[in-house]
Specification:
This protein is α/β, with parallel strands linked by helices and 249 residues long. The chain has a single domain (5-247), classed as Aldolase class I (TIM Barrel, Alpha-Beta Barrel), CATH 3.20.20.70. Helix content is 43%, strand content 15%. The chain has helices at 16-29, 44-54, 80-85, 96-101, 106-118, 131-135, 139-150, 180-197, 200-205, 216-223, 240-247; strands at 5-9, 37-41, 59-63, 90-93, 122-127, 163-166, 207-211, 230-233. An 8-stranded parallel beta barrel has the order 1-2-3-4-5-6-7-8, surrounded by 6 helices. The two termini are 18 Å apart. The structure holds phosphoenolpyruvate (PEP). Phosphoenolpyruvate (PEP) binds next to β8.
Length: 249
């Protein structure tokens, strides 16, 4: 039984005051939810304050990125140790905006995943193809390659702490979504790749989310597909009503 995980990626939105206001609304609206794992990923500046707000609730805290070293001369970076220290549980890594704007590659994402797992944090590893890659018929090859590289060297027992998010880049923030059957097909392919790398047991238990313009009106259709175990939500996670409707799909 895979419990759906719905995570809100707030990206570079929300001051601390705005973050507190949103999370207060969410706490109230989502208090009755017990069949989903709910995660919010505010910007670094709001993490600690939001952590305090979330104490004793059913909403967990995630960060949007990290570096792979514990400490050192890495100006501007934040370490898994620091995130653990302020109550973060999940960390999104390999988001296409990080891969695209900041040149992050699978080798770096793999190092981050391992560093997070060592600290007892749970990576949400994003994979997905661009429009050009899709149109060139490269979706399957690319996504498989990302999964192989991002999970390289990760032990079978660690997989229970990993979530994969399939996010076709052309669907992020564009209002375009993959059809639910297409999203399910690629996610089943990712599951199959995990089976090749590990075993049917790990493949059947790992949670794989879909991300890309998930909204209240398409959430049910997407999130009831057989292989889709929740969503990574960008734009629609910035408002309490829309995020609540998605969580309660
Ligand atoms: C995202 O940021 O991961 C995302 C899926 O964004 P949106 O829901 O806005 O497409």
């Amino acid at each position: 039984m895979r419990i759906p995980i719905i995570a809100g990626n707030w990206k570079m939105y929300k001051t601390v005051d705005e973050a507190v206001a949103l999370v207060r609304e969410l706490k109230e609206k989502l208090a009755d939810v017990n069949n989903r794992e709910i995660v919010v990923c505010p910007p670094f500046t709001a993490l600690h304050t939001v952590y305090k707000e979330l104490s004793g609730t059913n909403i967990k805290l995630g960060a949007q990125n990290c570096y792979f070293e514990d400490e050192g001369a890495f100006t501007g970076e934040v370490s898994p140790l620091m995130l653990k220290n302020i109550g973060v549980e999940y960390v999104v890594i390999g988001h296409s905006e990080r891969r695209g704007y900041f040149n992050e590659n699978d080798d770096l994402i793999n190092k981050k995943a391992k560093a997070l797992l060592l600290k007892g944090l749970k990576p949400i590893i994003c994979v997905g193809e661009s429009l050009e890659q899709r149109e060139a018929g490269e979706t399957e090859t690319l996504v498989r390659k990302q999964v192989f590289r991002d999970l390289d060297g990760i032990e079978p027992y660690q997989l229970k702490n990993i979530v994969i998010a399939y996010e076709p880049i052309w669907a992020i923030g564009t209002g375009k979504t993959a059809t639910s059957t297409e999203a399910n097909r690629v996610i089943a392919l990712i599951r199959n790749t995990v089976k090749e790398m590990y075993s049917p047991l790990e493949a059947n238990s790992i949670r794989i989310q879909y991300g890309g313009s998930v909204k209240p009106d398409n959430a049910h259709e997407i999130l009831t597909q057989s292989d889709i175990d929740g969503a990574l939500v960008g734009g629609a996670s910035l408002k309490a009503d829309s995020f609540t409707a998605i969580v309660k799909f």
